[in-house]
Amino acid sequence: MAHSNDKVVSSSTKESGVIFINGNKSSGLFKPAVKSLDDRDDGTHGRFEGSRNVDTFILESNLKWIPYDKFKNVEFLYEVRFAITYKAIWSLKSGDKEVILKSSNSNLDEPLINELIYHANCLESTEIINLYGYTKNPDTLNYMAVMEYAINSNFAKVIEMNWKQRLCILYKIISGLCEIHNQNLIHCLLCDAYILIYEGEEDKENNFFIGGFELCQPVKSFLKRDDNYGVLQFMAPEVLRGKPHTSASDIYSFSIIMWEFTSGVLPFNDREYDFQLNLSICEGERPEIIENTPQCYTDLMKRCWNEDPLKRPSASEVRGIIGSWIFHYSDNINDELKSNIMEFKNEPVGSHPQTFSSKVVDETLESEDSEASYYTILGSENLDDFIKTDEN
């Protein structure tokens, strides 16, 4: 059956140009802090079945149960390996409201429970996309998260904004990431596709929010090497080598978002997203600095994508620096930013013919290099022998 896909909040869209590496989530404790909607339905709560963690969730969560018959025009948007996402109209006393419905694409409810738990923990921050509650599809018997509807950001439009507007958006993003880290969580999937925006609002720089909690996990959890999902261009080199996600790897992902704010295009979009690009990133290759980017901005971006995760700043430090540019200009920064010298790539940017939008990287790596172990190569001291050059 064909599905309409006019508006997609997905990192699997062609516009996002992303690749995933296999993964799953681990469970954890939570303290609900859920935003309210005054006229939510107060009907009987639903029940998740078959798991002690699920029973605990029901007892401790203050997330609202929303009867499925309150939704109409349910429309498939996209599916990735860990979730299926729909758009729907929620019938409220105050009128209809567009929302996102997200369910696990497995028969287990625990992955969805974990996402609800971690998402709910972070809702004290206004920079996190709103989570209203959960429901159950009576046809599939799958439980679904109910979230605010927003679309993924178009950074090509962001660079049309003035410099201060762009800084304010970055400040919102890093503030949301601070809240995630303050909850002892790691986002693990921070990328442009999960920077969401409400359309039709005048105050544009205040309408950006972090979403995409599918892979969010506690700081102390450890995934197996081949259980790491990620968006290739945004993945820290240590994660590509098989180490677990950390708060520092989130900061690396933020640095790539910073770079997109100066270019309006995906990093390495003239390259094939393949094994060779993985190796190049692990060897230290980063997106080319856009000409005339302010030096203070470049310096922070380079710190955030440092090869050594221990040398990357914390989210709170990055927020303080960006906040100082916005709210407390020093003389040097004031002169540099007020000059508005940042120039962007306005010329058409070509894409590599073998660049693809969403694909499991492991499959690509197996076809690229059947003899060598992927993680053995990435874990080696010197990757030069494995990197193809023009001379090769």
Automatic annotation (TrEMBL):
The keyword Transferase applies. Residues 71-326 form the Protein kinase domain. InterPro entries: Kinase-like_dom_sf (IPR011009), Prot_kinase_dom (IPR000719), Ser-Thr/Tyr_kinase_cat_dom (IPR001245), Ser/Thr_Kinases-Pseudokinases (IPR051681). Keywords: Kinase, Transferase. GO terms for molecular function: ATP binding; protein serine/threonine kinase activity. This is Kinase-like protein.
